Amino acid sequence: MFISLVSVPIPCLAAEDETGLKKIVEYDQRTDRLIGFCDKGTGSQHQCNPELEVYIGSDLAKLKEAFQSHVIGGYARVILINPLHKKLPAMVLFLQFTCNCFDINDVSNQFNREIQWRKLIYLQICT
Ligand SMILES: [Zn+2]
Q1: What's the CA-to-centroid distance between 1 and ligand 1, angstroms?
Q2: In which domain, by residue range, is 103 found?
Q3: How many domains does the chain have?
């Protein structure tokens, strides 16, 4: 018996979905970041930022400031890559917490960026 890796191009579809969440913020110990905020600001000044990262480090003032100035997303928005192969699962390409403050231009720009990522994905299959 032997296992070999074979590189073959597999067609993939990208899909986007969104679901409601309980508004919570969690600490990710691995990255030392808070997860669950969508960006700073309130009202008409607010726009969800798909690239937001709230780094805390050892500064408790940053923790306090994050909760005072950021909006907690009530939705999770995900972009999945679905390989068109029965043995390959869907893969999460992108995950964002949001409060639905974004528009068609934001989504279009992001999809164009993610499509560039998709061109870089090359799957290997164990046979
Ligand atoms: Zn938001």
Answers
A1: 53
A2: 5-126
A3: 1
